[in-house]
Amino acid sequence: MNIQKDLLAITILLSASAISLPILTSGFLAGQALGFLPASLCIFIAGSLVSIIASLSSYIGAKTHKDTLFLAKEYFGTVGIVMVAISLAIALTGWFAFQLYCICSTLQTLYVNMPIHLCIFLFGSILILFRLLGIKKIGFIAVICSPPLLGILVFVATQISTIPDIIHIIHPATVLLTIGGLLGTTITATLELPILYQTIQQPKQAIISCLSIFGIFIPGLQILGAYIGTATATDLLPFLVQSLPQGEATCALLIIISSMLANILNLYSSSKTVERLIPSLGTTKSTFLAGISGICLARSPILRNSMVFFSLLTVAAGSLTILFTYTHLQKIKKTKRSITPMHALYIWIGAIIGAFFSQYIPAQNLFINPLLTGIVITTTLVVLIPKKKERNLTCFLHETL
Q: What domains, with CATH codes, occur in the chain?
């Protein structure tokens, strides 16, 4: 295996997969809500937080040469495997299904007669076949597709003559909601980074790769989206159709290619997780199992009727990423403060429950974003964990049983 080629393929694939409708839309909505400069500041804050978490996550994978599930077992035992399996299953399969649904629902908006269920099945099947090509070949496809996609977005930005001088009344709750939304588009990816970077020999290279992706490239795309969003009061899709030559066809091509690249990566990590859980399945069967599950979920009503699903989708992974990072740092420092498997389970469940109920808190309160609430709860409870004391055999048996 050529390690340098793998690193380049991973970096290019992660960057190319970021050129997607969810990333652009997150910046677009931030620009419409806050204006260009405040939105750019929020993007910088969210990008800084995610890039730090992503760098630590990739460092752990490259340093230990272990994937997320193996690390979960090492850190938290069987409880850890359950937490990671649930988090990754919800996050990766959920995002695969969501983006698959987004591709087809958007195409149906552009071409009314297109049957959405057939579209989901066909595109899902194509993504399964592409996933079986392997990470380096997928990266090669990303190299070919990325420049035209980026060129289209830059062209759209050049069609904006001036940004309207609109004074936005900015409420703190709106700022927190915006930062939470920006975090939600990328933080789930940090949990799967050990899977992607475990073969890299130099941890510093993994950190540089993640900083360039999550700290520069993705925030740059979101700032581009904020620039476009500030200039228009319409939704993103109508604006793209109006701005692009051969509007509907070019817009459809942009959505298909960008969303497919992002979704191949989701399916790659999802199938790797399934294969790690059930080694006897092998790569092909794991890919088909993960892909078919995503296709079925994309056709279910839950994606269209329950925002709670998407909140929990990011909260479970985000909370677990904080737990992983903290535990690894404590092991490096060899401190007496540590998280036991049951501590981790209680903190994780507490963060999810708190995030769920935070959606019903009135907007004037600060904790209105489920993901931010989950991160705050996780971080607070982790900090409050007492230092580990010397234990006798009786205490050890009591905790174990």
A: 3-304 (1.10.4160.10)
- pLDDT one-digit tens code per residue, 213-245: 999 999 998 998 888 888 777 777 777 777 777
Helices of type H across 185-306: 187-197, 203-210, 218-230, 236-243, 247-277, 282-298, 302-305
d(CA 278, CA 375): 30
Q: Give the span between the Cα atoms of 398 and 401, in whole angstroms.
A: 5
- Tell me the two tokens of residue 185: 């588009």
40: which 2 tokens? 């750019």
pLDDT tens digits, residue range 340-391?
A: 888 888 888 888 888 877 767 665 444 457 777 888 888 888 888 766 554 4
Report the alpha-carbon distance of residue 337 to residue 177 in Å, rounded. 33
* Helix runs in 299-365, H state only: 302-305, 307-333, 341-358
The 3-state DSSP class for residue 312 equals helix
Residue whose token pair is 């298909």: 256
Residue 232 DSSP SS3: coil
Q: What is the pTM of this model?
A: 0.73
Task: Compute how many other C-beta atoms are within 10 angstroms of the C-beta atom of residue 346.
Answer: 13
- For residue 57, the number of C-alpha atoms closer than 13 Å in the C-beta half-sphere is 30
DSSP three-state, residue 46: helix
